[in-house]
Amino acid sequence: MNSRLMGRTGLKVSELCLGTMTFGAAADRDESFRIMDHYMEEGGNFIDTANVYSQGVSEEITGEWLKQRNRNDFVLATKVRFPMGDGPNDGGLSRKHILASVEDSLRRLKTDYIDLFQVHAWDLVTPLEETLSTLNDLVRKGVIRYIGASNFKAWQLQKAIYISRQNGWESFVCLQPQYSLLCRATEYELLPLCEHEGVGVIPWSPLRGGWLSGKFNRGEHPQENTRVGANKEVWERYNNDFTWNIIETLIDVAAESDKTVAQTALNWILHRAAITAPIIGARNVKQLQDNLGASGWSLTDDQIHRLNEVSELPVSYPYDLAAENQQRRGRAPVLTRRE
Description:
Helix content: 40-55%
Strand order of the largest sheet: 9-8-7-6-5-4-3-10
Strand content: 5-15%
Largest sheet: 8 strands, parallel
């Protein structure tokens, strides 16, 4: 597996990041260990978790596995924001909650530092200066190495970068947004902003919760034991011609490339401008093996064009002007440096 630099930092991470949201839920401890073993054997070094995943169990499983390895061989990421208890200060991005959460995550992860500490979402209550100054102090203490954000809007990310810059504080080096063939609105402002500011991008749900895995077909309701089948709201939102046209194009392109549908969807996002490392999640080793097959090859220009065309979202002012300008100058250069 190739490595890439995280934005404008010197931090090298695998081009496919292992997400651990299934650990302690769809994957028990033993299966989670097997998943991490296989990821490591394939050259992976970038593991993403969060304190809220299974209310800390994911961090505990990851930490138990990592304790048996050379800690410095891995880039470990976790998050803070959502409630971990019923108390008034058990959630959010206040100094109190961040400091308590860091201590708890370090204990569960069985480590004395976190490589990438991310705020999981925007906090409407806490002043941004309080959050950013606290994160800066933690970097200065050596408890965390880099900071990142997840689920921010473009104006929120730019505001955070500006405040950090004005105060000489550590700035976000990474954004974790949702991005896939079924979620391309991320391209409107977030990706151009990340390119401009040198922020790495590690998209979550690159297969849109299984919709882009090739398991589902037009006119057939999925089984209820699948993530898609169990969520009626999500099924009703995506069960439309736009989705099925994308999936059917993916199936055609995958057949042409002798790859699986999931590998094809992941390969598309893997080679988008500004992308550092899509986050792949797996319930078992077989699923992980399939996802890892997205690395080491490239779609043709024609195949990329067809996937772009079928998944393109209608835009109005001012985004239509940006799209026209991009077409005039060709595909934007990939900021993310690769090793």
